[in-house]
């Protein structure tokens, strides 16, 4: 893949304002962004769309971000995962799923865009 215009990001975020802000920013960076509000919606998207990067909050209403990330890697083995979190907790599960560890809330959308770019180049 040579152009970021073809790269699809699945953003799973329960907070509507954060989801809208981050989606708009990533679209401005040239990514195709598909939004989901929970794990069930995300799994539906993963099953029907080619997704290159999954960005998920660790705390979802219907599953944990860890469970969703593990399921995503089963469906899409090459997918890159970024887990965001609002707490300062650390977990070995985050290290197993995320190459660069969790992204703590609040984060600037540019920080997320930079991390996506690094992951896609690795």
TrEMBL record:
Entries under Pfam families matching the protein: Response_reg (PF00072)
Response regulatory domain mapped to chain residues: 8-120
Keywords annotated in UniProt: Phosphoprotein
PROSITE patterns: RESPONSE_REGULATORY
Sequence positions bearing 4-aspartylphosphate: 57
One annotated GO biological process: phosphorelay signal transduction system
Name used for this protein in its record: Response regulator
InterPro entries listed in its UniProt record: Bact_response_regulator, CheY-like_superfamily, Sig_transdc_resp-reg_receiver
């Amino acid at each position: 893949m040579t152009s970021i215009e073809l790269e699809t990001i699945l953003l799973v975020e329960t907070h509507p304002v954060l989801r809208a802000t981050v989606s708009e920013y990533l679209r401005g960076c040239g990514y195709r962004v598909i939004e989901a509000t929970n794990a069930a919606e995300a799994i539906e998207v993963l099953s029907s769309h080619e997704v290159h990067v999954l960005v998920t909050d660790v705390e979802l209403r219907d599953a944990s971000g860890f469970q969703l990330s593990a399921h995503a890697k089963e469906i899409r083995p090459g997918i890159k995962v970024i887990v965001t979190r609002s707490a300062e907790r650390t977990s070995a599960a985050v290290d197993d799923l995320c190459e660069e560890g969790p992204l703590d809330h609040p984060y600037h959308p540019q920080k997320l865009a930079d991390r996506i770019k690094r992951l896609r180049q690795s």
